[in-house]
Specification:
Rossmann fold, 9 helices, 6 strands
C-alpha cells in the first residue's frame, strides 16, 4: 500500500487485511516502536527517511521468526513501503518467499494530505503529524522519492491506482475489487 502521507494507507490497509483475513504490517508503526539510536530518533522526528539497512532489519524481524521461517505464511498487507527506489530491490529480495499480487497506490492531492495530517495530528499523539513544517517536509520527500517506485511497479504490471479522496468505504471496495482481479491475473 503506497501513497503520500495522509493518503489513507493505514486505514485502507486495515480494511483490506480484514477482508482478506491477513494481518497488516505498518512499517511506520514498526519504526515508531523500534529501539532506535538518538540520531535515528531525531531523523524520524524531522520526517526524514531512516537508513535502508535499519528499515529492512526491523521489517525482516517482523516477517521472519528466523531465516526461512515465515511469521505470516498466508500473506499480509504491507503499509507504507518501499519509500525509496533503493528499498524496492531490498524489499523484493526480502519478500522473495511471497508472491506480490498488487501494489496499491492511493492518490490524493497534496492539500488534502496536508489537511488530513493536521487533523490527525490533533488526536494521534504523533509529533510528525502535529507540525506543519514537518508535514510539508514529509510530503516533499514523498513526492521526490515516489516517482521511480511508481514507474517500477507500473512496468511490472503490479500497480493499481486508486483515488483516495472518495469516501473510505468506497475506496476500500474499489481496492478489494482491483486486488482480487490482480490476484487472478498473477496466479
Amino acid at each position: 500500500m503506497l501513497g503520500p502521507p495522509g493518503a489513507g494507507k493505514g486505514t485502507q490497509a486495515e480494511r483490506l487485511a480484514a477482508k482478506l483475513g491477513v494481518p497488516t504490517i505498518s512499517v511506520g508503526a514498526l519504526l515508531r516502536a523500534a529501539r532506535l539510536n538518538e540520531a535515528e530518533r531525531q531523523a524520524q522526528a524531522k520526517g526524514e527517511l531512516l537508513a535502508d539497512t535499519t528499515v529492512m532489519r526491523i521489517l525482516g524481524e517482523e516477517l521472519f521468526r528466523s531465516p526461512g521461517d515465515l511469521r505470516y505464511p498466508k500473506g499480509f498487507i504491507l503499509d507504507g513501503m518501499p519509500r525509496s527506489i533503493a528499498q524496492v530491490a531490498l524489499l523484493e529480495t526480502l519478500l522473495a518467499p511471497f508472491r506480490i499480487k498488487a501494489v496499491v497506490l492511493l492518490e490524493v492531492p497534496r492539500e488534502v494530505s496536508l489537511q488530513r495530517l493536521l487533523e490527525r495530528g490533533k488526536t494521534s499523539g504523533r509529533p510528525d503529524d502535529a507540525n506543519r513544517t514537518v508535514i510539508e517536509r514529509r510530503l516533499d520527500l514523498s513526492e521526490a522519492t515516489s516517482r521511480p517506485i511508481i514507474a517500477h511497479y507500473e512496468k511490472a504490471g503490479l500497480l493499481v491506482r486508486i483515488d483516495s479522496t472518495k469516501p473510505i468505504p468506497e475506496v476500500a471496495e474499489t481496492i478489494a475489487t482491483h486486488v482480487a482481479l490482480k490476484g487472478k491475473t498473477r496466479q
